[in-house]
Amino acid sequence: MGIQRIESVTYSVEDLDECVRFFDDFGLFLVEQTDEHAVFETLTGQTLHLDTEPGPLLPPPLEAGPTLREVVWGVDTPQELERLAAAAGRDRAVREDAAGVFHTVDETGFGVGLTLARPKPAAFAPRTANALGSVSRWNTALEPITRVHPLRMCHVALNILKEGREEAVAFYVERLGFRPTDVVEPMGVFMQAPGDEDQHTMLLCHRPDRAGVNHIAYEVPGFDDVIEGGNYMIDHGWREARRLGRHTVGSNVFRFVHAPCGGRVEYAADMDRVDDSYETRVHETTPPHHIWALRTNRDQQDAPAS
Predict the structure, then answer these.
(1) pLDDT tens-digit profile of 183-212?
(2) Any stretches that span the bilayer, and where are they (predicted)?
(3) 286 Rama sector, left if φ>0, alpha if ψ -120 to 50, beta otherwise
(4) Are 49 and 34 in contact (CB under 8 A)?
(5) 48 has which bridge partners?
């Protein structure tokens, strides 16, 4: 089948301790740390690498400061891995490291890796919900989640230059097997990996003047996890990037936080799942960013009496 999921991501960072604190608060699991390097893991075994001294197989950064340097994609079989590495390397160098990861670059200059997927089973129980006529929780009161632990990295969004966007998308579609699910002509292309069920695994966002990381989304079990995870981050001093809401494309509930490694990270839940019968939607104008977003007037002062 081909690419199943994001297997790992690598950032070049400046303040490693701050980044470690951030992702510990975010709910990932620290599995390795040195003076120059740290590795975190999701519940399903994907890895996040933070490096102050990135290795020689990574391409140059596309923006100043801390940023995403490489996304490694997990492939289902050795045969598919060999085929995709050959397809990616038709007109560019592909180098294999000692761990069996094939490294190259995409049309924009982001690092692209290919390796065998190594998913871990994740034991979790989404919260049950009650509604009139549909009761699934009896005689049990809910407790605070307290600490949220993301299940997986579910999608990555990259900013690319508007000029050359067709070639940038074609690299992932024609060589790596992604398929466009929603094409938003003024803004970008949402794409699904062959082995994924999410409405999108990747988003390439068109920008007139810059390329760089936009965000990486992490799936959590449910709506409450999105809220409580974001609250925990705010309570620990991190800055929210968007109000809580539900996206139009993909339908997932979201909450974004600015990340010291560059870009943002997203808690995401309840994304649309689509199969091969889902036809690519082409939008000539950009749909609204969200179906709804949190609004409140609690903090507004009463208007003065006239």
Answers:
(1) 999 999 999 999 999 999 999 999 988 999
(2) none
(3) beta
(4) no
(5) 9, 40
Cβ–Cβ under 8 Å, residues 59 and 111: yes
CA-closest candidate to residue 117, choices 156, 150, 153: 153
pTM of the model: 0.95
Sign, CA torsion 244/245/247/251: positive
Enumerate residues 6+ apart whose C-beta is below 8 A from 165. 189, 204, 206
Residues forming beta bridges with residue 290, ordered by sequence position: 247
Judge contact between 196 and 202, C-beta under 8 A: no
* pLDDT confidence of residue 305: 47
φ, ψ dihedrals at 37, nearest 5°: -150, 145
Q: Taking residues 112-118, what's their average pLDDT?
A: 98
Tell me which of 72 and 242 has the higher pLDDT: 72
Dihedral (CA of 278, 163, 67, 87) sign = positive
Burial class (CB in 10 A: 0-12, 13-18, 19+), 162: middle
- The number of residues making up the chain comes to 306
Q: Strand order of the sheet with strand 67-75?
A: 29-33, 37-41, 47-51, 3-12, 67-75, 111-116, 102-105, 95-96
| Averaged pLDDT, 142-167 | 96
Secondary structure of 181-205 in HEC code, one letter for each residue? EEEECCCEEEEECCCCCECCCEEEE
